[in-house]
Amino acid sequence: MAKMNKKLPLSESRKFILSDETPFSIREAYRKVGTGLAFSLAENKPKTVVITSCSPSEGKSTSCLNIAISMAEKGASVLLIDCDLRKPVQDSLLCLGNDVGLSSVIGGLVHDVSDVINRNVRPNLDVLTSGPVPPNPAELIAGARMDSLLKLVGRQYDYVFIDTPPANVVTDAFLMNARIAGIVFVVREGRTKHYDIRECLRKAGMANAHVLGFVKAYCSVRK
What we know:
The chain is of the alpha/beta class. Helix content is about 35%, strand content about 15%. The longest helix has 17 residues, at about 25-40.
């Protein structure tokens, strides 16, 4: 990805979303990430992956979206879930409405998730936005409705990617370990510290989380 020196506003971050104008080298880098995940998850069903980072502003939301787009471009059916119920961003990156979404479903306000999924945001890619920010994110994520939701979408899609808050800020990324194939950490060139990575891995070990690997982001993006 193009290297930048300053933190970008959200409107500028959209420029880093994969498109027909994205340089080949960047598209190929995400394809390689997707290929690696496909091999790692070959024996897993469902193929549900949490994408997070150690700290804020390391590129995890943009990277999560680009990985999902790249997998969808291979012909797989993909669902992206914005599970950052504290500072969601996928709706803004994709210019989607967010009056209802994940929090509405796991909070019991919407009973059929299919009513709130955004279909074909890109070919083969559906998106479930975060919905309104709730007062109890961790409780909802760890609850039975989230469990039922992940079981349902895991049967319906080839891959499910879940964008969560940074792992060194809150524990949300580790609350779904029994329902996912593993976690991918996004680290950012020139920003993520070795200490932060060690702390993430320590927390992952304590939570018995399966770490699938790391993605190194070079650009400055908002999330």
